[in-house]
Amino acid sequence: TVYNGNIGWSVSEVAGAAILGGKQLDQLRASADLHAPLHANVRSMASLGPRDFEGRNSIAIAVVSDSGDAYTEFYDIESHLLVGIDRRIATPGGDVPTTTILADYRRFGDLLVPTTITQRLPGGQVMVTRIASIDQRPIDRSLFIPPESVRRLIK
Hints:
Strand order of the largest sheet: 4-5-6-7-8-9-10
Strand content: over 45%
Number of strands: 10
Largest sheet: 7 strands, antiparallel
Distance between the termini: 19 Å
């Protein structure tokens, strides 16, 4: 899935090429925003008070993005680090509730990064991402040029 500043698209072996729109594009655009963790594009935030999140004493924060996407973030009371997010992810089949767990924070230069990211989906599906290193070199701009299968869909 790619957002190049103008359009968002995905290419998969199962579904083929697709241009993203609506809530899917809004969420993709927000995830591509490097300032998103600073809540630069947030309409509102409100404390929901202390909560247990995955066995951690946390503060829950209700967030509403500028695009109207509502979700809850959980911050560890002791470390003040973001440890989880409950949100609904837009998919072609409708919104899907997800829980994302952020753990094992490590420093990569000046960056403090969760190196284990676990995403729980309905039906017991679990996706775990482990980060071993971070490459901070510039990204090759050619990665943001839509492939032919996507260009055929652009009107």
